[in-house]
Q: What sequence folds into this?
């Protein structure tokens, strides 16, 4: 067996152990650097690099060489060519090459009933043409735009899949796929791109029955989005980034957010999927709810109290995150490594913990790569059980 | 998992109902492949909304 294959076997074992709730040989290191950060790190121009899919391998290979990880360390989800082709208003390519996500409204208030009656029909007929203006045209042109967009989508994900497999074999990364799909929580799905942040907050107060019905109506779509065609391979995960809870009153959360979200998570878990939940912002006041979810969900925390999280959900679920990316920008190497030690002391005992930052660094200016390397190296080589 | 919509088709049912002249063995082969594209397009549409 080659060195890389041996390494992959060991890494697969520690990740399998942690995802199954067993104490692994050491704490797995699963960073998620954005492709945009990675492009800047290798010195390419973000304005042009994402337009050529062949850059993905070059960029990722350099990241794999330079940064310690037990799992393929780059995530890439937003494709300028796709959004440009569609005339997107929800993802705008800026002059610096960044994709910006402005506040958008894909569903007008008087279209709630259409969404509730048949969500997919409503999406195709009413929502997509609002968010993607090149689809708001005659049927012939629209069919061509859609064909081009789907081709881009397939090419981009085809490249990501092929490069991930190739580099995982080369560098001996674990055999796992924690991002097989990225379905939203149903409430977030209606909030993010259908009604927008401002409107959904008003709707929750003014027309909660409509919101509740809409959230229930879209739930089957999100379950379908995350479910694999057949039996999932071991260590297959779905990624669910949660957006709105920190902005909601508890009674609204319990009525409008939690029931359908819980249903989605329970369905995925029952199907054998690992559910990787990104707890955006501070979710501490909802910890008791998350304790109700099926065992061994992965809770990726951005902010909050790691001790409280360990105490309330750490015996049932797997915890990651909490490490502030801001420190990687402002701190010295020693301060950054000390922070990792502090979190390991709190979160590693008893297992059910892998190392990742509180969020994915976006720009080179937001996190010093030398600090990232120091932290990942430290945890990768010192966090043994 | 199936979704009721004018824009989502379950090919096995469609072929049975709309094109019954196609032999079962052939319909099964067609459905297996065409359903894959149906699912891929559904996944694509959902991706556009997250």
A:
């Amino acid at each position: 067996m080659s060195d890389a294959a041996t390494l992959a076997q060991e890494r697969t074992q520690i990740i399998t152990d942690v995802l199954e709730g067993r104490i692994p040989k050491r704490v797995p290191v699963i960073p998620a650097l954005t492709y945009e950060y990675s492009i800047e790190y290798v010195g390419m121009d973000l304005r042009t690099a994402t337009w050529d899919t062949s850059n993905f391998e070059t960029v990722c290979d350099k990241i794999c060489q330079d940064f310690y990880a037990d799992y393929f360390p780059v995530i890439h989800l937003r494709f300028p060519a796709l959004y440009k082709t569609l005339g997107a208003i929800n993802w705008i390519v800026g002059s610096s090459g960044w994709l910006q996500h402005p506040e958008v409204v894909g569903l007008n208030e008087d279209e709630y009933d259409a969404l509730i009656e048949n969500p997919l029909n409503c999406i195709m007929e009413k929502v997509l043409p609002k968010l993607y203006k090149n689809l708001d045209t005659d049927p012939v042109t629209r069919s061509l735009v859609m064909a081009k967009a789907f081709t881009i989508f397939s090419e981009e994900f085809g490249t990501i899949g092929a490069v991930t497999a190739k580099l995982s074999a080369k560098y001996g990364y674990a055999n796992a796929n924690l991002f097989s799909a990225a379905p939203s929580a149903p409430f977030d799905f209606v909030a993010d791109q259908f009604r927008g942040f401002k409107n959904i907050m008003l709707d929750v107060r003014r027309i909660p029955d409509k919101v509740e019905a809409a959230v229930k109506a879209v739930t089957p779509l999100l379950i379908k989005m995350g479910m694999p065609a057949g039996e999932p391979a071991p260590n297959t995960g779905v990624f669910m980034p949660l957006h709105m809870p920190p902005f909601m009153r508890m009674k609204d959360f319990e009525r409008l957010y939690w029931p359908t979200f819980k249903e989605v998570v329970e369905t995925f878990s029952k199907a054998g999927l690992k559910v990787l939940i990104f707890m955006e912002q501070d979710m501490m006041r909802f910890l008791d709810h998350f304790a109700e979810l099926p065992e061994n969900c992965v809770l990726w925390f951005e902010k909050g109290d790691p001790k409280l999280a360990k105490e309330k959900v750490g015996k049932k679920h797997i915890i990651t995150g909490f490490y502030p990316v801001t420190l990687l920008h402002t701190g010295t190497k020693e301060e950054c490594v000390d922070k990792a030690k502090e979190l390991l002391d709190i979160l590693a005992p008893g297992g059910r913990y892998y190392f990742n930052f509180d969020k994915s660094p976006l720009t080179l200016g937001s996190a010093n790569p030398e600090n990232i390397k120091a932290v990942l190296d430290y945890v990768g080589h010192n966090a043994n059980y | 998992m199936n979704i009721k919509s004018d824009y989502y088709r379950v090919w096995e049912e469609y072929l049975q109902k709309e094109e019954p002249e196609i032999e079962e063995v052939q319909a099964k082969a067609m459905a297996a492949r065409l359903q894959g594209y149906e699912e891929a397009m559904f996944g694509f549409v959902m991706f556009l909304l997250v």
The longest strand of chain A covers residues 274-282. Chain A has a mean pLDDT of 97.
